[in-house]
Amino acid sequence: MAYNCVILIKQVPDTKRITGEAMNDDGTVNRSALPAIFNPEDLNALELALQIKDKFGGKVTVITMGLPAASAILRDSLFRGADDAILITDQRCAASDTLATSYILSCAVKKADFDIVLCGRQAIDGDTAQVGPQLAEKLGIPQITYVEELIELNGKSITARRNIGAGWQQVRTKLPALLTVTGDANEPRVAAAKKMMKYKNAHTPVEVEQEVRSQKTEDSEAKIKKLVEKKCSELSEKGLLIKQWDLDYIEADLKWCGRTGSPTKVRRIQSVVLAAKESKNIEPNDQDVSDMIHELIEDKIIA
Amino acid sequence: MIDVNRKGEVWVFAEQHNGHLEDTPIELMSKARRLADTLGVKLAAAVLGDGAKDIATKLIHYGADKVYLAEHPLLGTYQTNSYAKVIFDLIHKYKPQIVLYGATAAGRDLAPRIASAAKAGLTADCTDLQIGDHQTTKDEQFHKNLLFQIRPAFGGNIIATIINYDRWPQMATVREGVMPPPEPDVSRKGEVIEEKVQISQQDLPLEILEEHKRPKKVNLKAARIIVAGGAGVGSKDNFKLIWDLANCLGAAPAATRAAVDLGFIDSDHQVGQTGTTVRPSLYLAVGVSGAIQHQAGMSQSQKIIAVNNDPDAPIFQIAHYKIVGDLNVVVPKMIKAVKEKSIKEEKTVKA
Prior knowledge:
By secondary structure, chain A is of the alpha/beta class. Chain A has a single domain (5-204, 242-256), classed as HUPs (Rossmann fold), CATH 3.40.50. Chain A contains eight helices and 13 strands.
């Protein structure tokens, strides 16, 4: 039996590479100074879906919500073996917290055909791990979080091993179900050369529009629109037009999207400046080290 | 949606497995007690299980005024859906203003499911909680006594303060080990409210086929002294230096993520954002550069000694004792100094 998998992916700033240059003077992070990458654990979720497809057949669909630039990770997914890719981009998504994000994603997932929904355990920009469980609740399906290994798929149910902190659990549930996948689950495959050749020119309509606008700065709005439509239909004929949905298409209730749909608000952001109140330089010689140990014993820090 | 209820209680979800109360809800109790006192409301704990009465008493000793006890044979083992349903029903019934969960594997699995059902806000992995007032810039609304939910973000590079004011309850998960646990007071009295639970087999969509729990090899949270080695230690062989120094100090050996990834030591020993958060009396960082992710797990240590041959290593910014030098020279000197002091003390005792 074949299984249709839908994977929710996210483009994130590479938080491991934050340097001084990536910090604004007010202590906020300058996202544009950081390379944007495929969220690492989302790659593990995609890999698990591709393994399911390799073994049982079925369709692998990736969905992301983000800015037009997020089209890059959709293309990357096509290079690695995804069958279909969808960009949800809409200015009304801006400032969505995890609750609003999971609502928007649930509207999109409902438009797709799925047996298994997969997410990375968490994204490295927020590290919240909330969107997966919230999406499962909105879809009304069971969740298996922190999946390390898929044990069995037998048509009606799925068995997986999940990490529970100090130890593991093997659980079974009926399909459809949502899984969040950890970095230990697998080694994500790299892009296949053939698929890269095939999909390197795959684009979302918004990317096509950006390209046209950058080249035809003199043209009228109507002319640009026409040209975009033409280019999109050309791509579509070749099977290279990546799907793009907005909130109207997925029939999202705007009350639950963006800022109005987000109960949590950011009050303040501070950069992390840690400093010891008092500090001493200790020379690496016997006397200094011995004096330091003595002081710590005197202060009853060392028993 | 649950309306704003300023008289609502402060709640802690008291996670327990097989009659054993987890550490994190205990750690949460002293902070939650202070929040409740500031707001002038009661502190309550919610316990779910099958045979969890003893835990209810314990929670009162740790500072709860009230314990909502939901017992049912189907609640004997934690499951996302059944627990989420029962807690959601309790929240709906009593309308607390704050609900806190430990950011454990179960807490991080459960809280978002409840938040989604309640359409409430949830902040993950808080390291601090405070009560404060907030004025919105746009329409200049004034909100008194909100829960400031403070958490690291962007891989620990920034600290964000999150609030929610238009939908209730205010919910947060709190990182393990960031708050000191209260001392139990066995003379404390409180009220245990036994809740009738409406659940059926349908609320348990998961079959748990097998479970293996293993205790952590080391209890870093309880250690008074920690000796941590980083990638700078160089090899698994050389990591013996860390074990030796830890042994002579009666300390727990620990490591950075880099050292764990290099295979120097087991991940149970990892301190930092993805490992354990510790706050010992003394933290010795040996060959540790001090990445922000590591600092997030140890910067609350009372005293920090750093040994590193790179004078520009970020760890020196937070160290109380800075030793710039080769750890292969410095650590043996430290071991020698500790041994000499203890011999001297023994002699004094004998005399």
